[in-house]
């Protein structure tokens, strides 16, 4: 610290106030306070210090004051705190969102095992000099904070695939320095943060906890920083964990919601998404019942949505897709009994196959054989529109449209798909309708068109112009 001249304020009372100007620095503070302005450092010196008391003249008043110059303070040295470097391990949907948000306040190192992903993001974030990406795990030794956002998907038997999470935590164990902060952002079953991260935090002396992600791929509003962030810490394993995590996240998010322990944070995330699974299953059950009653289920949903209380609006669909909703119920089911949730999850998982059966029955009856005229088999042509897991997305994770197309392809049908964002190479087993063939003439060559969702960049008004010979089934509004 530079030498400074200290000043004492003389007025009513005997407390000493230190005045800071552009030319002087404060002496050592009595305690630290959290910085709200400095980009990197969590602590700055308090602008108030304890100096010797001085008895003031009885005739001093608040309006009569003067500055008294004191002795020149001796030169001292204080160690500088390291500049925080936040490592985001796994830069997929969730990780990229974290990089984007945290880079507004911190230096960022994004780590991924995919060289292609690292190259892609290096270009995307090239305008931000405080962001870098790497496939070299030894670079993680420079980090002071670690956010783990790797996939936690399901195996074929619906058990949780923990290989990515365990691998990420192994890297943290190898490279994190004592005093670092580690937070799991990935969705996990209840108790997994404590089971997997707890021993590492204890042995390595790391502040540790769990903060479940709340990212909706493709959504830009509301901004991520405005979405309340639930945070938790393993304070019973490493005291001070929650405080360290609150300080880390508090500079990025507008609202921080600390909870008592990681198990609460884990359940919060799963409860949120499993509630959606239950509601989606119910609205689709209602929609299927409407088919036999001559009722438009979308009209029902729109009418019900006019109720301003006690109703959550959901729309009928082909199924559920993506990384979260189809998967999260099985995290809860892995170590708990939830009969209603199990029934909803299994029903929605099987829904595309059930709809495929219904389509085939409508074509051929229960025999499921191709119609033959004069001994020549005539194959029905079906176009499935929407292969991504939702509108605006090209990713195929748990895609209901893809599952339907593949189920239909098992029968004697000529199945094609259309999606402006999904290439032929992404779905090599189903023929893709070329973008230039999305015309009235080409669409009328199909017997049935099934719309999973309205993908961006496609003119769905054409479907209203088709002849009555083409059946169109809409699983969206």
From TrEMBL:
InterPro entries: 6-PGluconate_DH-like_C_sf, NAD(P)-bd_dom_sf, UDP-Glc/GDP-Man, UDP-Glc/GDP-Man_DH_C_sf, UDP-Glc/GDP-Man_DH_dimer, UDP-Glc/GDP-Man_DH_N, UDP_ManNAc/GlcNAc_DH. Residues 86-236 form the UDP-glucose/GDP-mannose dehydrogenase N-terminal domain. Pfam families: UDPG_MGDP_dh (PF00984), UDPG_MGDP_dh_N (PF03721). It comes from the Eukaryota. One of its GO terms (molecular function) is oxidoreductase activity, acting on the CH-OH group of donors, NAD or NADP as acceptor. Gene3D superfamilies: NAD(P)-binding Rossmann-like Domain. Residues 264-336 form the UDP-glucose/GDP-mannose dehydrogenase dimerisation domain. Signal peptide: none annotated. GO terms for biological process: polysaccharide biosynthetic process. NCBIfam families: NDP-sugDHase. Belongs to the UDP-glucose/GDP-mannose dehydrogenase family. This is UDP-glucose/GDP-mannose dehydrogenase C-terminal domain-containing protein.
């Amino acid at each position: 610290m530079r030498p400074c001249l200290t000043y004492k304020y003389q007025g009513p009372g005997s407390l000493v106030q230190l005045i800071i100007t552009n030319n002087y620095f404060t002496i050592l503070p009595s305690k630290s306070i959290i910085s709200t302005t400095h980009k990197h450092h969590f602590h700055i010196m308090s602008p108030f210090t304890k100096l010797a008391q001085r008895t003031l003249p009885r005739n001093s008043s608040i309006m009569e004051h003067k500055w008294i110059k004191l002795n020149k303070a001796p030169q001292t040295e204080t160690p500088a705190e390291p500049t925080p470097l936040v490592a985001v391990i796994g830069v997929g949907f969730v990780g990229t969102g974290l990089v984007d948000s945290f880079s507004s306040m911190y230096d960022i190192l994004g780590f991924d095992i995919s060289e292609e992903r690292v190259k892609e993001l290096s270009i995307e974030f090239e305008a931000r000099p405080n962001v870098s990406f790497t496939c070299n795990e030894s670079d993680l030794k420079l980090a002071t904070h670690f956010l783990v956002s790797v996939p936690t998907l399901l195996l074929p038997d619906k058990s949780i695939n923990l290989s990515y999470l365990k691998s990420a935590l192994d890297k943290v164990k190898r490279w994190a320095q004592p005093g670092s902060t580690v937070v799991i952002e990935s969705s996990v079953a209840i108790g997994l943060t404590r089971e997997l991260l707890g021993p590492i935090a204890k042995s390595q002396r790391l502040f540790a906890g769990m903060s479940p992600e709340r990212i909706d791929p493709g959504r830009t509003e509301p901004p991520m920083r405005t979405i309340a962030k639930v945070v938790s810490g393993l304070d019973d394993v490493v005291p001070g964990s929650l405080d360290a995590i609150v300080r880390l996240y508090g500079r990025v998010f507008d609202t921080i919601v600390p909870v008592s322990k990681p198990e609460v944070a884990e359940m919060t995330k799963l409860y949120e998404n499993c509630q959606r699974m239950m509601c989606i299953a119910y609205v689709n059950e209602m929609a299927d019942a409407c088919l036999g009653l001559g009722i438009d289920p979308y009209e029902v949903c729109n009418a019900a949505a006019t109720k301003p209380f006690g109703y959550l609006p959901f729309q009928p669909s082909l199924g559920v897709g993506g990384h979260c909703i189809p998967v999260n119920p099985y995290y809860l089911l892995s170590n708990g009994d939830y009969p209603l949730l199990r029934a909803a999850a299994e029903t929605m998982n099987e829904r595309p196959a059930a709809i495929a059966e219904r389509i085939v029955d409508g074509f051929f009856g229960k025999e499921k054989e191709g119609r033959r005229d004069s001994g020549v088999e005539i194959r029905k042509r079906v176009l499935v529109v929407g292969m991504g897991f939702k509108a605006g997305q090209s990713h195929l994770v748990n895609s209901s449209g893809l599952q339907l197309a593949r189920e239909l392809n098992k029968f004697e049908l000529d199945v094609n798909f259309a999606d402006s964002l999904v290439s032929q190479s992404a779905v090599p087993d189903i023929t893709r309708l070329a973008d230039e063939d999305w015309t009235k003439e080409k669409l009328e060559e199909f017997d049935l068109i099934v719309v999973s969702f309205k993908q961006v960049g496609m003119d769905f008004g054409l479907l209203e112009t088709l002849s009555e010979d083409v059946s169109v089934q809409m699983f969206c509004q």
